[in-house]
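Structure ticket #2291
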Amino acid sequence: MLVAYYAALVMGVFAFGHALSQRADAFTAAERMTKPAWLGITGGGAFALLLFHPFSPGAMFWLAGLVAVTVYVVDVRPRLIEVQRGPRW
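Resolution: structure written out below.
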């Protein structure tokens, strides 16, 4: 479970860093929430992953942080990449 804890923490930091490095208009072009909203979600999720542990009393917050950054990595990030790349022939 310790490996899962550190892997989730790395994913949270990656998601926040990726959201920080993207253009603001790409989020609206991808029909997702705004950049500040995703920065708040991924930043809060990464903070929850850092602050809590899966076996701590705040495990519910750890799980919520994990879900938040996973949604960004699985849903938002590929859409942003697709929008910024342009049409593929």
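Closing remark: DSSP finds four helices and no strands in the chain.
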